[in-house]
C-alpha cells in the first residue's frame, strides 16, 4: 500500500495511533512487572507527544518504515529478568496485532459506518498496525525482535548480543535508507500470512 498524498488525512492519524499504542503497551507491561521507570519518565500515557519520534514518524510517512521513542525500562525490577524482558518486548507487536484484528472486524462488519469515519482511515489503520508490528519483530537492534531474541536465548547468550548493538544499529539504519526493497521482501510474506489468518478468522463470524 503506497502513500497517496491525498490520503495524508487518514495516514497521519493512523500512524500516530499505532505508534502510541505500541509504546504504551511496552510501558504498561513493564509497569505491571514492577518497573517504575516508564511511569517516572512519563511514558505510561496514551498522549502521542510522549512517544512520537519526529524522524521515525517522517520515515513512516515516506517509506512506510519507521519508529517511535523507545520506552526506557529497568529489567532489574523484574522477578525474572529474561522473562520480563521477553514479555515487555512482545507487548508492543502484540498490541498491533490485536488492534489489526479489531479494525478488521470494524471494516468487515460495517461498524465503521456508525462512526462517521471514512473506511479509508480504518484501512490505513489496519495496514500500519500490521506493518509496525511485523517490522518490530525483526531480531535486529533496536527493534523489539532483538529483545525477544535476548529473552529466548538460553543462559546469558542473549545479553552477549548487547555488546554489538551499536554496530548492528548503524548497519540496519543504512539498510532502511539504502535497501528499503530488501526489507519489504522480508516483511511482505510475514504480513501476508498474518493478514490471511486475521481475515480468515474474522470471516468465520462476519
Overall geometric form: globular
Largest sheet: none
Instruction: Please report the number of helical segments.
Output: 10
Structural class: mainly alpha
The total strand number stands at 0
Estimate the helix proportion, in percent.
Answer: 55-70%
- How are helices and strands ordered from N to C? HHHHHHHHHH
Contiguous low-pLDDT stretches (5 residues minimum) are none
Total domain modules: 1
Strand content: under 5%
As a whole number of angstroms, the C-alpha radius of gyration is 17 Å
Describe the structure.
- The protein is an all-alpha fold.
- The protein has one domain.
- It is 68% helix and 0% strand.
- The chain contains 10 helices and no strands.
- α1 runs antiparallel to α4 and α4 runs antiparallel to α6.
- The longest helix has 29 residues.
- The radius of gyration is 17 Å and the shape is globular.
- The model has no long low-confidence stretch (mean pLDDT 91).
Amino acid at each position: 500500500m503506497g502513500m497517496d498524498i491525498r490520503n495524508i488525512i487518514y495516514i497521519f492519524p493512523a500512524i500516530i495511533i499505532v505508534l502510541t499504542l505500541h509504546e504504551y503497551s511496552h510501558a504498561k507491561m513493564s509497569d505491571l512487572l514492577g518497573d517504575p521507570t516508564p511511569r517516572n519518565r512519563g511514558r505510561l500515557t496514551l498522549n502521542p507527544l510522549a512517544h512520537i519520534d519526529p524522524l521515525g514518524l517522517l520515515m513512516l510517512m515516506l517509506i512506510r518504515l519507521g519508529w517511535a521513542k523507545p520506552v526506557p525500562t529497568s529489567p532489574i525490577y523484574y522477578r525474572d529478568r529474561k522473562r520480563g524482558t521477553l514479555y515487555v518486548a512482545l507487548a508492543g507487536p502484540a498490541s498491533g496485532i490485536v488492534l489489526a484484528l479489531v479494525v478488521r472486524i470494524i471494516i468487515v462488519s460495517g461498524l465503521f459506518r456508525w462512526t462517521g469515519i471514512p473506511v479509508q482511515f480504518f484501512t490505513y489503520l489496519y495496514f500500519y498496525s500490521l506493518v509496525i508490528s511485523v517490522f518490530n519483530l525483526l531480531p535486529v537492534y533496536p527493534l523489539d525482535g532483538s529483545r525477544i531474541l535476548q529473552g529466548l536465548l538460553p543462559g546469558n547468550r542473549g545479553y552477549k548480543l548487547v555488546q554489538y548493538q551499536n554496530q548492528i544499529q548503524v548497519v540496519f539504519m543504512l539498510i532502511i535508507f539504502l535497501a528499503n526493497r530488501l526489507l519489504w521482501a522480508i516483511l511482505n510474506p510475514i504480513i501476508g500470512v498474518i493478514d490471511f489468518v486475521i481475515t480468515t478468522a474474522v470471516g468465520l463470524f462476519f
